[in-house]
C-alpha cells in the first residue's frame, strides 16, 4: 500500500463518515455553547432537526464514494446507505416525540446527546471494522445514560439510569471479549476481510471451537442491545422508569443498532459457510434457542401486563424474538437462502416496520393525558378512547394491528418475510428445525395478538373511566400520524422498502472480487473465494 | 371485465368510506346508502354470472393473458400480484355473498339504530373482504382478504352484539387469527416447495400456477405417501389449522355458538352464510387441490372428525332452547357434511360439497333472518317463551318452515341436491361414515321440526304475557312483518325452491372446475399408488359420477 493510496482511502472514509461527523460536531457545539448562550428549548430542538436534515443531504451527496473495502474502516454499500437514511428519518419522529421532554435549562445537552445517539447508530451501519463497530455501539450507549438521567431527576429515572448503565457496561465488555476472539482467530479486524477468510478454505478460520466462543460473546453483547433472552430483563424496568420519549428511543435505536451489528459482524461474515459447517451449525442452534425463548417469554409475560410501558417493553422483547428468527435464517441460509427472502433482508424490513408501529404506539400514548395532566399509564386508562378521541384511537389501533401482524399492514409483510425466510433458508435435513421455529413463531404471534387486541377492545368496547385529552402539540401528532399512515402505506405498497432491504442484504453478503488477491499465504489452498450473490 | 371485477370488489368499500366520512348521516340515510351499494354490487355480481362461461376451467374475468400471469403486478420480487378472477368453484359463492349482503342490510333495517352509519360501513367492508377473497387468484391476496374479514365482524359483534358480546368478539377474533397464522405458514410452505422443486425454480404466488406446478412434482418419489413424514401431510395440517377453525370442524367449533348468539342478526346471517364457507372454500382451493396426498393420508382422521361433528352438532342442536344456538349447532352439523363430501375426492362429492356451500348459505341465512324477525319483536330467542306464531305471522311461518325444510334436505328443496351427492360419494369411499352421516340427516330433520313445532304451532305464547307485563301493551303492539323483512326472505326462499327443482344450471358451472381439481387429485394419487405398493388406489369410477357424457 502506497502512502498515496492510504491517503486516498482515509479521505474517502472521511467522506463516507461525513454525516456522522457532522452530527457529532453539531452536538459538541450545542453542548459547549449551552452554558454561554441562552436559547429556548424550541431553538435547540430546531437546531437538532436542522442537523438531521443536513445529515440527509450530506449522506445523499456522498452516496457514490466507495472506498476499498479491504482497507477502509467504513463502507458505503447499499446497507450502509439505506440504514443510515432510515435512522436519520426516524430521528425526526423521535425528535417530534421528545420535543417537550427536557427542561429548558438542560435541553441543549438533551438534544446534543440525541444527535450523538443518531450518529452512533449510523456509524454502526457503516462500520467495516470491528473497532469502528464497537465505537458506534458505544456512541449509542454512553449518551443514552445521559439522556436517561437528563430529562428528569427523580428517583425512578435514577434507578433506570443506574440499571441501564451497569448492564450496558457489562454487555459492552462481553461484546469486546467476543470481538477479541474473532480478531484472535483471524488476525484482522476488517469485516469484509473476515468474510473473505471465511469464504476461503483455510483450515484455521473460522475455527469451530474458538469461533463459537467469539460468536457466543458477541451475540451476548448484542442480545442486551436488542433486549433478547437471556439479557432482556432490564427492559421492562428501564422502560417503565424512564419518560415515554426515552422509552420509545430505547425500544427502537438499540434494536436497530444491535441487529445491524449482528448482520455486519456475524451473519455477513459467516455467509459463505453452509449450514453443514460445524460452526454455523452451532450458531444456528444458539440463535434458534434465543429466538424461541425470546418470543415465547416476551409474549407470555406481556399477557400479564397492565402497565402500558411494561406491556410495550415485553412486546418489544417479543419482536426481538421474531427478528432473531430472521437472524437464524440468515445464518442457516448463508448466501443461498436468497431465493424467496434472505434472512438479513427480512430482518431489515421488519426493523423498518417495527420502527413505525412501535414509535407510533408510543407517540399516541405519549400524547394522551387526563385533564389534570397525568399521563395515561395503564391500559385501563385507554378505556373508551375510541369514542372520545377518535383520531388518536384510530392511529393506535393501526399501530397495534400492525404489531399484531395483521394484513395488509407493515407488520404483516414483516412477519411474512421473516417466516418465509426461515422456511426457505435451507432444504434437506436442517429445514425441519427452521420450519419448527417458524411454527413456534406463528403460535407466538397468535398469543401476542391477545394483548394488543385487549387494548383495542378496551378502546372501543369499554366505557371511559376518566376522559383523556390529546396533548403534545403538532410535532407529536405529526410524528405519530406519520408512523400510523406509513404502517398502512408500507402495507399497501411495500415494494420500494422491500427493494431497498434486498439491495442492502445483497450488499452486506457480497464480497468483492478482490478477495482472490489476498496473499496466497493467507488464503492457503486457492479456491475462488469471491462468490457473487445471485441477484435472483 | 377485469377492471370491473376489481371495481366490484372495492365498490362496497367505497360505500363504507362514504358512510364513515359523510357527516351527520342518520339511520334512514345510512341504511339507504348501504342498501343501494349492496344492490349495485349484487347487480354487478349477476353481470359476472351472466358472462360466466361454464366450460372454461381457467379463471375468468382475470386481467392478463389466458395462461397467466394474471392481474396487475403488486410486488415485483417476489412476484405477488393483484390478481382477481372467478372460476366454477368461486362464482356461486361470489354471487351468494352479493345476495346475502342485501339480506343482511334488510335484516338490520329497523333493529340497528345506534351508530347506524358505522354499522353499515362495517357490513360493507365485510362484503368487500368476502368478494375479494372469493375472487383472489394470488395466495398473498387471498390471505389478506381472509384476515381482513375478521376486523369488520369483530366490531359488528363487539359493538352491536348481545350481552356477552365482548367475550364473543375476542374469542372469535383470536381463535380465527391463531388458526389462520398457521395457514399462512402452510401457504408459504407451498410456495417454497414449489420454488425449490419445480425444474425452473419458479417463484410464484398465483393459485392456478401453484395448483398446476405442485401437482407435477414427484411427491411420491420422495416419501411414502401414507406415512406421517410425507411433506404433504405437514403442509396439509398447517393449512388445515386455519380452515378447520373457520369451517368449523368438530373440536374447533367452540367459538361458533358464542359468536352466533351474540352477533346481531345480520352478523349471524353473514357469519353462517358466507364466512364459514371461507373455510371450506380454502380447503378445496388449497388442501384438496394442492396437497391431495395429505388429504388421502389423513382421510380416516378427517372423515372421523366430520362424522363426529355431524352427529355432535345435531345432538347439541337438539338440546338447545335458544333458537339461534340451535341454528348455530345445526351449522356445525351441516358443515361437517360439506367437508365429508370433498374428502371423498371424487367428482360427485366435490360437486355436492360446492353446491351444498351455497345451499347452506341460503337456508341458514334464511333461518337466522327468521329468528331475527322474532327477536326484533319479542327480544327473546328462547323457544319456551314463544309459541303459536302461525296465527300471528303467517307469512313468516311460511318462510320459516320453508327454509327449515330446505335445511333438513327435503327432496325438492336445495339441501337434498347437495347432501345426496355428498352421501353417495362418501358411501363409495367409506360406507360406515356415510351411514353414520345419514343418521345426522335424520337428526337434522328432528331438531328443525321440533323447533317449528315449539315456536310456530300450538297455542299462542308470547313473552311478557304471563303476569309481568310492563304496561306498554306487550304483544298487542307487536308490528306485523314489514316489507323489508319480506324483501329479505323472498329471494332466499325462491332460490331454495329453484335450486331444489332445477339444479342443473348450478352444477353446469361447478362441474368443469370440480373435474379439474379431481383430475389433479387423481393424477397424484395414481402416481402415488404406483410407487407405494398396496397403497389405496384412487377410486376412479366407483362412485356415481356427476360427469355428463360430454365432459366424461
How many β-strand runs of chain B?
A: 2
Number of domains of chain B: 1
* Biggest sheet architecture of chain B: 2 strands, antiparallel
Helix and strand pattern of chain A: HHHHHHHHHHHHHHEHHHHEHHH
- Termini distance of chain A? 36 Å
Task: Write structural notes for this entry.
The complex is a heterodimer of chains A (536) and B (552). Chain A has 536 residues and is mostly helical. Chain A is 72% helix and 1% strand. Chain A has a domain at 301-492. Chain A has helices at residues 3-16, 18-33, 41-61, 78-98, 107-126, 130-150, 155-186, 191-199, 208-226, 234-241, 244-267, 278-302, 308-333, 343-367, 385-388, 390-404, 410-424, 431-461, 473-492, 495-509, 520-523; strands spanning 368-370, 468-470. In chain A, helix 2 (18-33) runs antiparallel to helix 3 (41-61) and helix 4 packs across helix 20. Chain A starts with a helix and ends in a 13-residue tail after the last helix. With 552 residues, chain B is an all-alpha fold. Chain B has one domain. Helix content of chain B is 70%, strand content 1%. Chain B has helices at 2-21, 27-51, 91-107, 116-135, 139-148, 150-160, 165-197, 207-215, 219-222, 231-246, 255-262, 265-290, 292-297, 299-318, 323-343, 347-378, 389-392, 394-407, 414-429, 431-456, 483-501, 504-531, and strands at residues 72-75, 80-82. A two-stranded antiparallel ribbon of chain B has the order 1-2. The longest helix of chain B has 33 residues, at 165-197. The A-B interface holds A 339-341, 401, 404-408, 412, 416, 419-420, 423-424, 427, 435, 438-439, 442-443, 445-446, 449-450, 453-454, 457, 460-461, 494-495, 498-499, 502, 536 and B 74-78, 140, 143-144, 147-148, 151, 155, 158-159, 165-166, 169-170, 173-174, 177-178, 181-182, 184-185, 188-189, 191-192, 195-196, 201, 203, 234, 238.
Amino acid at each position: 500500500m502506497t502512502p498515496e493510496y492510504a491517503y486516498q482511502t482515509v479521505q474517502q472514509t472521511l467522506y463516507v463518515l461525513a454525516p456522522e461527523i457532522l452530527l457529532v460536531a453539531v452536538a459538541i457545539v450545542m453542548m459547549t455553547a449551552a452554558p454561554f448562550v441562552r436559547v429556548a428549548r424550541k431553538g435547540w430542538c430546531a437546531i437538532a432537526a436542522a442537523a438531521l436534515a443536513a445529515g440527509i443531504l450530506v449522506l445523499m451527496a456522498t452516496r457514490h464514494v466507495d472506498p476499498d473495502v479491504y482497507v477502509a474502516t467504513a463502507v458505503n454499500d447499499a446497507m450502509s446507505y439505506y440504514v443510515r437514511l432510515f435512522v436519520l428519518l426516524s430521528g425526526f419522529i423521535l425528535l417530534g416525540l421528545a420535543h417537550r421532554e427536557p427542561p429548558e435549562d438542560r435541553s441543549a445537552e438533551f438534544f446534543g446527546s440525541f444527535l450523538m445517539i443518531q450518529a452512533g447508530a449510523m456509524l454502526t451501519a457503516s462500520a467495516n471494522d470491528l473497532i469502528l463497530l464497537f465505537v458506534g455501539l458505544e456512541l449509542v450507549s454512553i449518551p443514552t445514560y445521559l439522556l436517561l438521567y437528563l430529562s428528569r431527576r427523580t428517583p425512578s429515572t435514577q434507578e433506570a439510569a443506574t440499571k441501564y448503565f451497569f448492564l450496558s457496561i457489562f454487555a459492552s465488555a462481553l461484546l469486546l471479549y467476543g470481538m477479541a476472539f474473532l480478531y484472535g482467530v483471524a488476525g484482522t479486524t476488517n469485516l469484509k476481510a473476515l468474510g473473505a477468510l471465511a469464504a476461503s478454505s483455510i483450515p484455521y478460520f473460522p475455527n469451530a471451537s474458538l469461533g463459537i466462543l467469539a460468536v457466543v460473546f458477541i451475540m451476548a453483547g448484542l442480545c442486551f442491545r436488542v433486549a433478547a433472552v437471556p439479557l432482556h430483563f432490564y427492559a421492562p424496568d428501564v422502560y417503565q422508569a424512564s419518560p415515554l420519549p426515552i422509552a420509545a428511543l430505547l425500544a427502537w435505536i438499540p434494536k436497530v443498532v444491535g441487529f445491524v451489528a449482528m448482520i455486519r459482524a456475524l451473519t455477513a461474515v459467516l455467509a459463505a459457510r453452509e449450514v453443514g459447517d460445524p460452526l454455523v451449525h452451532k450458531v444456528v442452534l444458539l440463535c434458534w434457542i434465543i429466538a424461541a425463548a425470546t418470543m415465547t417469554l416476551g409474549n407470555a409475560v406481556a399477557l400479564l401486563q397492565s402497565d402500558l410501558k411494561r406491556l410495550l417493553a415485553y412486546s418489544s422483547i417479543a419482536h426481538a424474538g421474531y427478528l432473531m428468527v430472521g437472524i437464524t435464517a440468515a445464518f442457516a441460509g448463508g448466501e443461498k437462502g436468497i431465493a424467496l427472502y434472505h434472512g438479513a433482508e427480512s430482518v431489515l424490513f421488519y426493523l423498518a416496520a417495527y420502527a413505525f408501529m412501535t414509535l407510533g404506539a408510543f407517540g399516541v400514548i405519549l400524547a394522551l393525558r387526563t385533564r389534570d395532566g397525568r399521563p395515561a399509564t395503564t391500559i385501563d386508562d385507554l378505556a373508551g378512547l375510541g369514542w372520545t378521541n377518535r383520531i388518536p384511537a384510530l392511529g393506535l389501533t393501526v399501530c397495534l394491528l400492525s404489531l399484531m401482524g395483521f394484513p395488509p399492514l407493515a407488520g404483516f409483510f414483516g412477519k411474512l418475510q421473516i417466516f418465509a425466510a426461515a422456511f426457505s433458508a435451507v432444504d434437506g435435513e436442517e429445514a425441519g428445525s427452521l420450519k419448527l421455529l417458524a411454527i413456534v413463531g406463528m403460535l407466538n404471534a397468535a398469543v401476542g395478538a391477545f394483548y394488543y387486541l385487549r387494548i383495542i377492545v378496551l378502546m372501543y368496547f369499554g366505557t371511559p373511566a376518566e376522559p383523556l385529552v390529546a396533548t403534545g402539540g403538532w410535532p407529536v401528532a405529526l410524528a405519530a400520524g406519520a408512523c400510523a399512515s406509513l404502517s398502512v402505506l408500507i402495507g399497501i405498497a411495500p415494494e420500494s422498502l422491500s427493494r431497498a432491504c434486498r439491495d442492502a442484504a445483497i450488499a452486506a453478503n457480497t464480497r468483492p472480487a478482490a478477495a482472490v488477491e489476498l496473499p496466497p499465504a493467507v488464503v492457503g489452498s486457492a479456491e475462488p473465494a469471491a462468490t457473487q450473490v445471485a441477484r435472483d | 371485465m377485469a377492471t370491473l371485477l376489481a371495481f366490484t370488489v372495492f365498490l362496497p368499500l367505497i360505500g363504507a368510506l362514504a358512510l364513515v366520512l359523510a357527516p351527520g348521516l342518520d339511520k334512514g340515510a345510512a341504511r339507504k346508502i348501504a342498501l343501494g351499494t349492496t344492490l349495485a354490487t349484487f347487480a354487478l355480481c349477476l353481470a359476472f354470472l351472466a358472462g360466466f362461461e361454464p366450460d372454461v376451467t381457467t379463471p375468468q374475468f382475470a386481467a392478463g393473458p389466458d395462461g397467466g400471469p394474471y392481474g396487475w403486478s403488486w410486488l415485483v420480487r417476489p412476484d405477488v400480484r393483484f390478481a382477481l378472477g372467478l372460476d366454477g368453484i368461486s362464482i356461486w359463492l361470489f354471487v351468494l355473498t352479493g345476495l346475502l349482503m342485501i339480506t343482511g342490510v334488510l335484516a338490520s333495517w329497523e333493529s340497528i339504530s345506534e351508530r347506524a352509519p358505522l354499522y353499515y360501513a362495517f357490513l360493507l367492508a365485510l362484503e368487500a373482504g368476502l368478494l375479494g377473497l372469493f375472487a383472489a387468484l394470488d395466495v398473498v391476496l387471498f390471505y389478506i382478504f381472509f384476515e381482513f374479514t375478521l376486523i369488520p365482524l369483530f366490531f359488528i359483534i363487539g359493538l352491536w352484539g348481545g350481552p356477552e358480546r365482548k367475550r364473543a368478539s375476542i374469542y372469535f377474533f383470536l381463535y380465527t387469527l391463531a388458526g389462520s397464522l398457521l395457514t399462512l405458514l402452510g401457504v408459504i410452505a407451498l410456495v417454497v416447495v414449489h420454488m425449490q422443486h419445480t425444474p425452473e425454480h419458479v417463484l410464484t404466488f398465483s393459485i392456478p400456477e401453484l395448483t398446476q406446478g405442485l401437482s407435477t412434482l414427484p411427491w411420491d418419489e420422495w416419501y411414502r405417501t401414507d406415512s406421517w413424514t410425507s411433506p404433504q401431510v405437514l403442509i396439509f395440517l398447517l393449512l388445515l389449522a386455519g380452515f378447520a377453525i373457520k369451517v368449523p370442524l368438530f373440536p374447533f367449533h367452540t367459538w361458533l355458538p358464542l359468536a352466533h348468539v351474540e352477533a346481531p342478526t345480520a352478523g349471524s346471517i353473514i357469519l353462517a352464510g358466507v364466512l364459514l364457507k371461507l373455510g371450506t372454500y380454502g380447503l378445496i382451493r388449497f388442501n384438496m387441490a394442492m396437497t391431495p396426498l395429505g388429504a388421502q393420508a389423513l382421510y380416516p382422521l378427517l372423515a372421523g372428525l366430520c362424522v363426529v361433528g355431524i352427529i355432535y352438532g345435531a345432538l347439541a342442536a337438539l338440546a338447545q332452547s335458544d333458537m339461534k344456538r340451535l341454528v348455530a349447532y345445526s351449522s356445525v352439523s351441516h358443515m361437517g357434511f360439506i367437508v365429508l363430501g370433498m374428502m371423498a375426492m371424487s367428482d360427485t362429492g366435490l360437486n355436492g360439497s360446492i353446491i351444498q356451500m351455497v345451499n347452506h348459505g341460503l337456508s341458514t341465512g334464511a333461518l337466522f333472518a327468521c329468528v331475527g324477525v322474532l327477536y326484533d319483536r319479542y327480544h327473546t330467542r328462547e323457544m319456551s317463551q314463544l309459541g303459536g306464531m302461525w296465527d300471528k305471522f303467517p307469512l313468516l311461518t311460511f318462510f320459516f318452515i320453508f327454509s327449515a325444510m330446505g335445511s333438513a334436505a327435503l327432496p325438492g328443496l336445495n339441501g337434498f341436491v347437495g347432501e345426496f351427492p355428498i352421501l353417495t360419494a362418501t358411501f363409495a369411499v367409506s360406507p360406515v361414515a356415510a351411514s353414520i352421516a345419514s343418521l345426522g340427516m335424520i337428526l337434522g330433520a328432528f331438531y328443525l321440526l321440533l323447533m317449528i313445532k315449539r315456536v310456530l304451532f300450538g297455542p299462542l305464547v308470547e313473552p311478557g304475557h304471563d303476569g309481568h307485563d310492563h304496561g306498554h301493551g306487550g304483544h298487542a303492539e307487536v308490528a306485523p312483518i314489514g316489507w323489508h323483512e319480506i324483501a329479505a326472505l323472498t329471494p332466499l326462499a325462491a332460490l331454495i325452491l329453484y335450486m331444489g327443482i332445477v339444479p342443473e344450471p348450478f352444477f353446469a358451472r361447478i362441474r368443469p372446475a370440480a373435474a379439474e381439481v379431481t383430475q389433479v387429485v387423481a393424477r397424484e394419487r395414481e402416481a402415488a399408488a404406483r410407487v407405494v405398493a398396496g397403497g389405496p388406489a384412487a377410486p376412479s369410477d366407483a362412485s356415481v359420477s356427476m360427469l355428463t357424457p360430454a365432459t366424461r
